[in-house]
Amino acid sequence: MTTPFHQPPEHLAPIADPASVDAAIERRVSIRAFLPTPVPRAVLEAILRVASRAPSGNNAQPWHVYVLEGATKDDLARKVLDADNARREHPELETRYRPDYDYYPRHWVEPYLARRRANGWGLYGLLGIGRTDKDQMRAQQQRNLCFFDAPVGLMLTLDRVMGQGSLLDSGMFIQNLMLAARARGLATCPQAAWNEYSSIVLPHIGAAAEEYLVCSVALGYPDPAAPVNAFFTPREPLENFVHWVKQGNAE
How far is the C-alpha of 215 from the C-alpha of 196, rounded, in Å? Predict the structure, then answer.
C-alpha cells in the first residue's frame, strides 16, 4: 500500500525573493513629509489585511484600527493642535492631558539618553534648527499633530481588559502594516505624540469606553523633495545588543 504524496501547506513554502523582504525592512524609515495624493481604498484594505497576519498571544488579535481621511482627519488635527496651543499658554491644563500608558521612561538613562539626543539633534540639524530655536522646534513637533500632512491617519487602540502582552502584539501588527505599505511604494511614520491627547482622539474616532490609544500611524506617498525625508537613523552593531549564551552558562 502506497502513501499518497502530500504537498506542504502554502505557508511553509520558501520565500521566492527574500531580498525583497529584507529591502522592505531595511528601507522602512519614519517619513515626515507626505504628498497630498490619496491612497486608494483597495490599497489600504490590502495593507491592513496583510498586517493582520501578525502573531498575537492565543491568536487574540487584540488590535482595533481607525482609519481617518479628509475632513475627519483634518478636524481631529485642528482639535488637538488647539489643545496643544492652549496647554502651552495655560500650564494649569497640563494635568488634563495624560497618555494611557508610559511609552517612554520617566527618567532616561544611558545608553538610551545619548541615542535619544543624537536622534533629535540629527533631525533638527538637517532642518537647520539650532538648539536655541525653541519656536522652530515646537513647530516641527506640532507637525506630528497633523500627521505630517499624510492623507491617511491610523489610530490603533486596545481594550483595557487586555494585558501588557497585547502591546507587543500591536507592535508586530504595526510593523507588518509599515512593511506592507513600504512594499507598495507608500511610507509611514508611527507616532506616540497623539497619546497625550487620547481624551480628544478616542471620542472623535468613536472608540468604545473600554479602549485606550496605543499610537497613531501616518500613511501616504512620501514627498521625495522634502529635506526632512533624507533623515535616516543609524542602528547599533550586533555586538552592542546580541548576547551569545555559551554552553554551561545555564544551571
Answer: 10
Question: Would you state the pLDDT for residue 63?
Answer: 98
Amino acid (1-letter code) at residue 162: M
Pairing of strands 211-220, 64-69: unpaired
Distance linking the first and last C-alpha atoms of the chain: 49
Grouping H, G, I as helix, E, B as strand and the rest as coil, residue 136 is helix
Domain-by-domain residue ranges, the chain?
29-104+145-230
CATH number among 3.40.50.700, 3.40.109.10, 3.30.1490.190, 2.60.40.10, domain 29-104+145-230: 3.40.109.10
Task: Identify the bridge partners of residue 34 per DSSP, sorted by sequence position.
Answer: 222
Helices (H) and strands (E) in the chain, counts: 7, 4
Rounded Cα–Cα distance for residues 185 and 189 (Å): 14
Contact 79, 202 (CB under 8 A): no
Q: What is the pTM of this model?
A: 0.93
Distance CA 182, CA 219 (A): 10
All three cell numbers of 173, joined, read 501588527
Indicate the residue type of 238: L
Does position 2 have pLDDT exceeding 70, yes or no? no
Phi, psi of 237 (to 5 degrees): -70, 155
In this structure, the chain runs to a length of: 251
On whether the CB atoms of residues 114 and 30 are closer than 8 A, the answer is: no
DSSP-derived 3-state class of residue 65: strand
